Amino acid sequence: MNVTILLLTLLVGAIATYISGKKPAAKVALLFGLVAFVETIVLICQHNAGTDAGYMTQWISNPNIHIALKADGLALALTLLTTALTPIIIFSSFGDHIEKSNIFYSLVMFMSFAMTGTFLAADGLLYYVFWELSLLPIYFIALLWGNDTFEVRKKAILKFFIYTFAGSLFMLVGFIYLYSKTGSFLLQDLYNARLTGTEQYWVFLAFFLAYAIKIPVFPFHTWQASTYEKAPTVGTMLLAGIMLKMGLYSVIRWQIPITPIAAKEVMPTILVLSIIGVVYGSIVALKQANIKRFFAYSSLAHVGLIAAGAYTLTLDGMKGAVLQMIAHGFVIVGLFFVGEIIYRRYQTRMIGEMGGIRQQAPKFASIFMILMFASIGLPGTFSFIGEFNILYGLSQINLWYAVIGGTTLIFGAFYMLRMFQKAMLGETNAKPFADLNTKESIILGVLAIVIIFLGIYPKPLADLITPSLVEIVSYIK
Amino acid sequence: MDTNVILLLLLVPLLGSLVNIFFGKKLGNGSGIIATLAVLISFIVTVVAFVQVNGTKTPIQGNLFEWIAVEKFSISFGFLLDQLSLLWLLFVTGIGTLIHLYSTSYMKGDENYGKYFGYLNLFIFFMIILVAGSNLLITFIGWEGVGLCSYLLIGFWHKNQDYNDAAKKAFIMNRIGDLGFLIGVFILAFLFHSLDYMTIKTALMSGTNHQINTWIGCAALAIFIGAIGKSAQIPLYTWLPDAMAGPTPVSALIHAATMVTAGIFLITRLNFVFDLAPLVQDTIAIVGAFTALFAASIGLVQNDIKKVLAYSTVSQLGLMFMAIGFGAYEVAVFHVITHAFFKACLFLGSGSVIHAMGGEQDMRRMGGLDKYMKVTYITFLIATAAISGFPFLSGFFSKDEILMVAFEHNKALYIIGSIASIMTAFYMFRLVFLTFKKGFRGTQEQKNHLHESPISMTLPLIVLAVLSIFGGLISWPGSSWLNQYLQPVIVKSAANHPHALGFEAYMLMGVATVGFLIGLIWAFRKYIQKAQVPQEDDKITGFHKVLYNKYYIDEIYDKLFVKPIYIIATFFRDVVEVALSGAVFGLGKIADELSLQGKKAQNGNIGLYLFAFVFGICLLLYYLFIAR
Amino acid sequence: MENVIEIIGIDKYIYLSIILFCIGVFGILYRRNAIVMFMCIEIMLNSANMLLVAFSTFHQDAEGQVFVFFTMAVAAAEVAVGLAILVTIYRNIGSIDIDKLKNLKG
């Protein structure tokens, strides 16, 4: 089996969901999502057994473009994140009233398809196509099914779209320049492009704009909070859980190995920016009233640390970054779902209007707490593994990076516990709060188990990604 | 076999915890029994392992699996049961069992009875991980894990936001220390490419590379910061008194006997690192001595029975750190153990009092309780005598040894320590006199409610009181079993060069006894003979008020750190965010403006279009054929 | 038979077609009546046609003349469409002065 089948499953899933009509749409999407997940597991097993599941064929002969899909450990790990979260995200919206649900779920599946493609693509242009394709569904999901009035959310969503799209165009320019140099878009050829220092510098910058906006790195983050707030929760989960990782993944897969000299040169600047993002995001989160904005800024802090890890250019930092990407994906999806559950009961996203929930819903409170502590990076949860690796990588470059970046330990605890106290603790809330129903328990339970299991035994994932990262690091040296 | 022992030790409390958290509601009173049994089994396993290790002199080790791998080394999920960790495990699980037993009565009727025991078991589980970890990162799991349990248990009654504030504060302050711990881990990893205690020890023992000494100092300092957070020393001590918001058995177990001594455990574990950093050791001694004095002085005037004990704990921990600073690890460990006995006894006793008083904690509302609660009174008195340094009780020996070490190294710190000890004697007897002597000052309703606690609560008190009396025997001056026992794990062991008891030692014992008497008589005159009762809050003035308000440290921290962060947060949210967002919109505006200007050229005049067209063609032709 | 081009000379044809073309261009720029502008366009087209024919004869190659036929056919079609448009405009506005046609204003 090779990865095209996985991509086709997702694409067919999107079409089938659209055709199936409004009622069964969610179930059809879930079914295809689960099939894709199983296929990913099979692919990973195959990969571990030594079979290459990649695929390559000529697409257009002039210009020289291939349909090249590379299924190494790194790509498969991120694919796993996508295909594991997609069914969870779809399932989380079961029971919600969604108008034109077949189009909605079809877009979700299509987005999953495009993101998987982005992770697997090994040809620059194909990668770019997938990259941009993934932007379309989220634009419509956020615009048509979002919160607030249409006019208000249009402003935020349009900003997001144009901002990220404009950034990506610079990446396209970078690719075209690379093509003019090498005559190929293939990843491997680009790795071996042998650019001069100045050329690398410009290509690096072109890529950086695209990635810095997508990740987002401070100060390119202004689209994030408003988009998260306005998008429907499913969209927010897709954005925060998977789409942010496209940027981070691309840094490791494309940017750094193609332009190693430039990366080494500007590394300190970018590390400083990323670490500013960590502190800045944490501090801004303290004063957020809307729980989705709150999680958005906590995400900003977390991805700042991940970006710092990726830009350390060391194996440890990058490994931590990849592990943390996956951990953050699971945790943030869980947290947004928690926010959604509160919204379902109380019709509010304002932290100040919550409170006293733990008394009424102990199960919910416990899982919320697990997710919260995972987000803080408590040892024993998956986030700690990534955080430790990243901070260790940073400390090996310069201890001060680790010290300042490590303040996330303190600030993270500060804003998270503060939010938790306001939202969950205190005198029993006058409004009743029903504890988790079966569906919600399954979703949050699965997330909690994954987070804790991988926190104690991260070896399978770490072993999966390490060889690819070793290869990438070898291009840097 | 070894792995099985470790697994049994770990999994039983974890299992107990999970059962209680998930099925606590259904189990009812059974959950208390299950939890107590779980810890009891751990205790028995510990005793078996202790006997084995004490006999064979070889530690029990086991690596379960590889946990985290970095480029240069990998960290396994490994455990090491050597003399030091077993000693800690003995009193953690031992006192833990007693406190679980105590809790079965104390917490009876609480709506979250099952969950309470779940958390308590979880705490024991993490404490075992902390103590038994074979490398720094496993210890770190336990380190943060006990912090988590501490958070959960301080805020156990989560309806009260003040308690939640206390829990949050404890967790965050601990986290500051944890960052220090982690930085220390990074430096050690950088130096030795390993986090394994044994490997680091061997590396340090074999090579005497003086180049790395500065880094070793940094590592030691960073880890000491971690210890400061967990063991509540200046400047991170303020969480511990607030932590008394939790149920009293929790205060006894976590915030007196076990978790707060983790800092001392860690430094003792890494004694070979700290030995190489004399400057850091001096810092530790000074911080410890000042904490001891500072906390004791606050303890003099507190009226909340648990607050007094909390400041006493901070003060005693300070003394332990002072001993560690002088390189006398065995002495610190000795005091940790005796302190665990008598402080647990005191806390449980105060819990018994609070239980009888129906939740009242203010000593000004108590008095004369000795008539109603004989067992509590007697055990409390024994523990008080022990902590104050009544000759030949456990506290006398351990505290005396600390002061003796201080006398050898630094006379000024010795004096500070002695003053702290006198204060301890004073405020402890003040506590006893105010609580148990003279007439009852509470309401009539409370008076009718007064009763001795049930056997499950008094039994732990009796056991702990007995241990408080005889605990000193493990390190009898001159021929210390403890020093011998700890010899393999402490590099500069005292057992290697035992010194005979000279005149000086007897003199210091005498001085200590006199100090104890001063404190006792001072308290006796004030609260028995003159029968004073501390003033109400609004009548306190002068320096007394400063002390009563804990030197306003909380307020200062609030003004210095918390408020500015909120101000910055607001500034970032309202100004920087808006500005950044404005910049992005600004780019959009520029594009908009450009297109507006360009629109003007499209005025619909076909003649102009044609002219532009022809002109353009001409330019093109000019460029293509003539300009070339 | 002697080639007519050799008698008169190719350069004369080129000059003539340049003159014709320029007349067309200036006519377009100067006149405001759409019909006259159409005629000017035709002049420009025919100047190009003439040049094609002249070179075709000069090179003894019929390909150029084939092009001319195509051009004329296309021009005829274009005139038909263009005039139809003009007629419609005239019916609607009552004028074919291009200064009055400003609906393309952006």
Automatic annotation (TrEMBL), chain A:
Q: What EC number(s) does its UniProt record assign?
A: 1.6.5.-
Question: Does the record's keyword annotation contain Ribonucleoprotein?
Answer: no
Residues forming coiled coils: none
Q: Which residues form the signal peptide?
A: none
Task: Indicate where this protein resides in the cell.
Answer: Endomembrane system; Membrane
The membrane topology of this protein is: Multi-pass membrane protein
The residues covered by the NADH:quinone oxidoreductase/Mrp antiporter transmembrane domain are 123-407
Transmembrane region(s): 73-91, 103-122, 128-145, 157-180, 200-221, 233-254, 266-287, 294-313, 325-343, 364-385, 397-420, 441-458
DNA-binding listed as a keyword: no
Q: Which GO terms describe its biological process?
A: ATP synthesis coupled electron transport; electron transport coupled proton transport
Identify one Gene Ontology CC term for this UniProt entry. endomembrane system
Main subcellular localization, coarse class?
membrane
Matching Pfam families: Proton_antipo_M
- UniProt keyword list: Membrane, Oxidoreductase, Transmembrane, Transmembrane helix
Q: Which InterPro entries match?
A: NADH_Q_OxRdtase_chainM/4, NADH_UbQ_OxRdtase, ND/Mrp_TM
Q: Which GO terms describe its molecular function?
A: NADH dehydrogenase (ubiquinone) activity; NADH dehydrogenase activity; ubiquinone binding
Q: Which family does it belong to?
A: Belongs to the complex I subunit 4 family.
Protein's recorded name: NADH-quinone oxidoreductase subunit M
TrEMBL record, chain B:
Which molecular-function annotations from GO does this UniProt entry contain?
NADH dehydrogenase (ubiquinone) activity; NADH dehydrogenase activity
What keywords is this UniProt entry annotated with? Membrane, Transmembrane, Transmembrane helix
Q: Main localisation, per the record?
A: membrane
Domain NADH:quinone oxidoreductase/Mrp antiporter transmembrane residue range list: 134-424
Membrane-crossing segments per the record? 6-23, 30-51, 86-104, 116-134, 140-158, 179-200, 212-229, 250-272, 284-301, 308-326, 332-354, 375-393, 413-436, 457-476, 505-524, 606-625
Per UniProt, residues of the NADH-Ubiquinone oxidoreductase (complex I) chain 5 N-terminal domain are 67-117
PANTHER family hit by this protein = NADH-UBIQUINONE OXIDOREDUCTASE CHAIN 5 (PTHR42829)
Q: What is this protein called?
A: NADH-quinone oxidoreductase subunit L
TrEMBL record, chain C:
Q: How does it sit in the membrane?
A: Multi-pass membrane protein
Keywords, sorted A to Z: Cell membrane, Membrane, NAD, Oxidoreductase, Quinone, Translocase, Transmembrane, Transmembrane helix, Transport
Cross-referenced Pfam families, in alphabetical order?
Oxidored_q2 (PF00420)
Chief location of this protein?
membrane
**A GO biological process held by the record:** ATP synthesis coupled electron transport
Q: Could you say which EC number(s) this protein's record lists?
A: 7.1.1.-
**Catalytic activity from the UniProt record:** a quinone + NADH + 5 H(+)(in) = a quinol + NAD(+) + 4 H(+)(out)
Q: Where are the transmembrane segments?
A: 12-30, 35-55, 67-90
Enzyme class (EC, first level): translocase
GO molecular-function annotation terms?
Answer: NADH dehydrogenase (quinone) (non-electrogenic) activity; quinone binding
Entry's Gene Ontology cellular component terms:
NADH dehydrogenase complex; plasma membrane
Q: HAMAP family recorded for this chain?
A: NDH1_NuoK
Quaternary structure annotation from Swiss-Prot or TrEMBL = NDH-1 is composed of 14 different subunits. Subunits NuoA, H, J, K, L, M, N constitute the membrane sector of the complex.
Query: What is its biological role?
Result: NDH-1 shuttles electrons from NADH, via FMN and iron-sulfur (Fe-S) centers, to quinones in the respiratory chain. The immediate electron acceptor for the enzyme in this species is believed to be ubiquinone. Couples the redox reaction to proton translocation (for every two electrons transferred, four hydrogen ions are translocated across the cytoplasmic membrane), and thus conserves the redox energy in a proton gradient. NDH-1 shuttles electrons from NADH, via FMN and iron-sulfur (Fe-S) centers, to quinones in the respiratory chain. The immediate electron acceptor for the enzyme in this species is believed to be a menaquinone. Couples the redox reaction to proton translocation (for every two electrons transferred, four hydrogen ions are translocated across the cytoplasmic membrane), and thus conserves the redox energy in a proton gradient.
Cross-referenced PANTHER family, in alphabetical order? Answer: NADH-UBIQUINONE OXIDOREDUCTASE CHAIN 4L, NADH-UBIQUINONE OXIDOREDUCTASE SUBUNIT ND4L
- Which protein family is named in the record? Belongs to the complex I subunit 4L family.
Q: What is this protein called?
A: NADH-quinone oxidoreductase subunit K
Species name: Myroides albus
